[in-house]
Amino acid sequence: MELRTDIQYLKGVGEKRARLLAKLGVGDVNALLKLYPRAYEDWRRITPIASAAFGEPCCVKAVVDRKPAEFLIRKGLTLYKTEVTDGESLLNITIFNSKYTAAKLKEGEEYLFFGKITGNLYRREMLSPLIEKAEGGERIRPVYPQTLGLNSRAIERLVATALELTADKLPEILPESVREEYGLMTSRSATRAIHFPEDNETLDTARRTLAFEELLVLQLGLLRLRGRNRAAAGAVLKNDRSGEFFGLLPFKLTGAQRRAVAEAVADMAKPHPMNRLLQGDVGSGKTAVAAALIYCAAKDGLQSALMAPTEILAAQHHRTVSSLFEYAGISTALLTGSTPAAEKKEIKRRLREGTLDLVIGTHALIQKDVAFDNLGLVVTDEQHRFGVAQRTGLSAKGQNPHVLVMSATPIPRTLALIIYGDLDISVLDELPPGRQKTATYTVGGDLRERAYDYVKKHLDAGLQGYIVCPLVEEGETDLAAAESYAEELSAGAFARYPVGLLHGRMKGRDKDRVMAEFAAGSIKLLISTTVIEVGVDVPNAVIMVIENAERFGLSQLHQLRGRIGRGRQKSTCILVSDARNEEARRRLDIMVKTTDGFKIADEDLKLRGPGDFFGARQHGLPELKIANILTDTDILRLTQRAAKDIARADAELVLPENAGLKLAMEALFEEMAGAGAN
């Protein structure tokens, strides 16, 4: 049997079970072997009946006193009861609705019973225990992810069959030299041991081996991506004019901003294109860093393009950057879907002829008829909001231009290394002077009216605010929820104020119109769904109320809160929640205690895990089957070192000892391409 054999053809599966296994992501034999146990039960630790703790899982070895008796309680419920002894004490065993399990118990024979002890000091009982014959049963047992109709024991039997039929077909991933250097097992031994470990030490080594393999292959894949970028010749920056640019600014850059500019300028002076992620919290001054690089490029005769996900954000960038370049002799233009036709034509002509230094726009920049004379720098803002084709389409308009990716979504460094592993990373971890921290409070629904009164106080003072809609209940559309909520507020509590509504089902131009009216001040209160989490600067907006706050991710709450606190005025965010469970309260407390996006992102990652964090799948992040970037940071560091050593000696992985790594990496690239295709 081959590893790629359809799972339905494995002995014991068939069509019905194949459908159940598909729910667990298992389509072939190889995927079954990579369905790693989520936990283990230690059936080697035998507990005497008398000393077993109530309510705790334990394993008891005992002899069946008598054949189980059958009791029909009601239609659909039959109990089978017997008594077992370990020679010192008695234990009552009750089995529910399983004639097959009861029939297996033979009087006078010894078995292992795994479950929780209930009852009292005089009469101990175990309900529905897992049962095995004592002979050969004392071992560590795997516990697998399950689905209705397919339990862990059934999966365990299928895995044992698969290992028996394909053990010699499993490829060896790691070269022997790597295994020896890092104290690891062979792939075949590790796969067997992760499912059926002999002892805890073997289990630990097996897990470490498989996590190392997974992360090493990922690191090599990212090095390959980075190597492709490095191989191409970009437009080399001849002069560092950033100091000159700093002198033009009406404000002083932070140390973090200057450091990021220096890192990027050094990249641009190399004979291969820069590929750098500029990661900074809301309001950390990413645009000024991008402007410094655009200035250097323009003074070196290179054109630049800055792409933003929405027209209103593109217009904001254009206002900010063109004001910085006002006296620098650098020409700028804004190109979006709503730019008048004659103006579009003129902008495109100037780009082709090289008389325009910088164009800022939306995906309109990647239209076929947009051509550059000498595109040297591409900046994309909030890259995760663009599709793969859009992200690469702009760079394709130049001869391997330098690329700067800006993100206001703080990502813990370990996750950033994987999501953006083909990029170098600069972090802006200081806020510019004068930035006010946003005060954050949590209130229950009973104080909602008081919160609304507080919002009105700000509106009456000529300021503006946001109210973020409650998250949608199942079966209700976000459109219906947002519209009914907005109607209720504009007809009730906020009847005296100009109220606007923004939601995800609106057309792009309608969203931009509402945001433009809000930015201009004609809308005083904006009622919105989460579409505002990446939005325009409105320094006059200083108050925000977020309904059902417990139902948002921490990073999303932080992004929403980032819409206020963008001016010199003191800003306030009110989280409305009636949640009582401990985890929800803890998450909201984090929001109250800190405005540091990176601390919040770390907490979010711990609470939600890497799979859910920030919709990681849309980045083309491969699903890690066994490695955990929260707990395996030491292995991640080791694999980064090992990957560099291997790539230095054999960049294309053509040496025979690297054949397994090459195959695994190619399979990973296929998976990453599939995950990032949308």
Largest sheet: 7 strands, parallel
Low-confidence stretches: 613-620
Residues in helix, %:
25-40%
CATH evolutionary superfamily of one domain: P-loop containing nucleotide triphosphate hydrolases
Number of helical elements: 22
Stated plainly, the CATH topology of one domain is called Rossmann fold
The count of β-strands is 22
Q: Indicate the proportion of strand residues.
A: 15-25%
Widest β-sheet, arrangement of strands: 12-13-11-14-15-10-16
CATH architecture of one domain: 3-Layer(aba) Sandwich
Q: Taking all residues together, what is the mean pLDDT?
A: 87
Q: Distance N terminus to C terminus?
A: 34 Å
Computed CA radius of gyration, to the nearest angstrom: 31 Å
Class from secondary-structure proportions: alpha/beta
The dominant shape is: globular
**Main CATH class of one domain:** Alpha Beta
